[in-house]
Write a structure and sequence with these properties.
- Helices cover 49% and strands 15% of the residues.
- The chain has 20 helices and 16 strands.
- The radius of gyration is 34 Å and the shape is elongated.
Length: 524
């Protein structure tokens, strides 16, 4: 081999990338520079340390002024022999000129965490919180830092770990704040009541932003007013569904009933639409037209009825006549059905102010009785009544349903403390229904864009994503911030030890591919 050939081989070896490829000199030098900046451990003189650093002045100066841990000799910056990086925090190693001992001085203090001996560095925690607050990822942060000449961060090894610590703390703080406020409200209510009864009512999702202003004003009044003893009022409403409107959201009240001890209230309501034959088969109610006028019949007998506005007015007047103060309305499976429609109609008929003056909140007896008597095959009201008393009752009549529920509650002798965790105040009920409405709207949008035409995901997955508080716009924003990992980080974020939605690769890739297509179409 000639000497010239040996020199060429030496040059090629120097340019070899280590993975079977050869690099241009300019590319290799650029890579070496970036490695020197991002390397966690830099053993180079102080004057040659690249870029800038973020320093906690008070913490760093205190540690720096202490000098050598062995002999106490003062340091100079030129005594730095090594730097170790942890995200945005730097650990500088000083070598004492007197005793040659090495002392570490950290640029940031550690953040205190309840379950760990040594928490993450405060500068990293603050950065993670800032990223969450502003909605940006590691890519955007590194672009800003590199412009300033500050070494970048790595989203997996450094900042993502801190995000996992900071995220649950933020969520837990928000949940604790809401829980504390709810407990305080219930405690005030309980202290002002000598005996406690419960009234129950109805269902899920409905919505009226104006109601929140009324509730806030009512809450201020309650803090200064004395509240009378609440009554256990078991309420139930029969619903009709028009033939051309089978969905539950379009159902109407056709019977409103409630009981409180020996006192009871019942009223039939003439619906605007027809009653579906399947509903008639269950409750015996139907609409007939006699001589051009609509009438309500129950089991082939005409039932005296009125419009829903008058029925609600009379119901609220009956509540006020009980002299029990504010009541808690109770209904079996009421959170899913009764609460929704009662709040809907008291809002539509402008009775919400009067309603808040008489009703403290709602309680759904279904989860309550499930806890009281576990491992039953069925928790239908008819089955519970038969299991309790050994006889049946005339079910699907609102008044008889309410009386049956009152008998079951009395037989079980359920204390107020046991009911307390199942109570929804009027404010909580409205918030619950507002959230359900937003979630349904997000699910509908997501199904329209991801399920119908392209079939990116299933409808059940779209519902699961919306119930986690995410919308289509959230997915889009996550993708635009980080096209490679944004969707994955959002959907697989750990919440109480489980993924927020899913960590299945196939689903994440499918959603990412959808936004890849959408983004490419916008660019073209």
């Amino acid at each position: 081999m000639e000497s010239g050939d040996a020199k060429n081989i030496t040059k090629c070896t120097a340019r070899h990338s280590g993975n079977g490829r050869f690099l241009k000199v300019s590319t290799r030098k650029k890579g070496e520079n970036m490695t020197s900046i991002r390397n966690k451990s830099l053993k180079i003189p102080y004057k040659e340390l690249p870029g800038r650093r973020i320093i906690d002045i008070r913490h760093f100066s205190n540690k720096f002024d202490e000098g050598c841990y062995n002999c106490g000799s003062a340091f100079q910056f030129k005594d730095i022999i090594k730097e170790r990086k942890y995200g945005l925090c730097s650990v500088f190693v000083f070598k004492c000129k007197v005793c040659s001992s090495e002392t570490k001085v950290v640029s940031s203090r550690r953040h205190k965490m309840p379950d760990t001996t040594e928490g993450p560095y405060a500068v990293n925690v603050k950065s993670a919180i800032g990223m969450i607050h502003t909605g940006i990822g590691a890519t955007h942060v590194n672009g800003f830092l590199n412009t300033l000449g500050i070494p970048g961060i790595h989203h997996k090894t450094t900042m993502k770990e801190v995000e996992r610590l900071a995220g649950p703390v933020i969520e837990r703080t928000a949940n604790d704040s809401c829980t504390t406020a709810g407990k305080l409200e219930k405690e005030i209510f309980r202290k002002q009541c000598s005996t406690t009864d419960a009234v129950d009512e109805q269902e899920e999702q409905i919505t009226f932003e104006e109601a929140m202003d009324i509730l806030e004003a009512a809450d201020e009044e309650e803090s200064s007013e004395d509240m009378s003893t609440p009554a256990i009022i078991c309420e139930k409403g029969n619903m009709s569904t028009a033939k051309n409107r089978i969905t539950v959201d379009h159902a109407e009240i056709v019977q409103l009933s409630a009981v409180c001890g020996d006192s009871h209230f019942t009223k039939f309501v003439l619906p605007k639409g027809d009653i579906h034959v399947k509903a008639t088969a269950v409750n015996g109610l139907e609409v007939r037209i006699v001589k051009g006028k609509k009438y309500l019949f129950q089991h082939n007998q005409e039932a005296e009825s009125c419009d829903v506005s008058m029925a609600l007015s009379e119901f609220l007047a009956w509540l006020n006549s009980l002299s029990e103060g504010k009541v808690i309305l109770s209904a079996h499976n009421g959170k899913v059905f009764d609460m929704k429609f009662l709040l809907k109609y008291v809002t539509e008929t402008n009775c919400f102010n009067l309603f808040c003056e008489n009703v403290y909140g709602f309680i759904d007896t279904l989860p309550l009785l499930r806890k009281q008597k576990p491992r039953m095959k069925s928790y239908k009201l008819t089955n519970l009544y038969e299991q309790t008393f050994g006889v049946t009752f005339e079910a699907h009549d609102a008044l008889h349903d309410a009386k049956a529920l009152q008998d079951i509650i009395k037989d079980r002798s359920i204390a107020f403390k046991e009911m307390e965790s199942y109570i929804l105040t009027a404010t909580e009920a409205v918030n619950y229904l507002l959230n359900r409405r937003r979630s349904s709207a997000c699910a509908a949008e997501m199904e329209n864009k991801l399920c119908k035409n392209e079939k990116v995901i299933t409808c059940s997955m779209a519902k699961k994503i919306s119930e986690s508080g995410l919308s289509y716009d959230h997915l889009k924003t996550a993708y635009l911030r980080d096209p490679e990992n944004g969707i994955k980080l959002l959907l697989s974020e750990q919440v109480n030890g489980k993924p927020r939605v899913t960590n299945r690769t196939a689903i994440i890739k499918s959603i990412k591919s959808h936004f890849d297509t959408v983004h490419s179409q916008l660019l073209s």
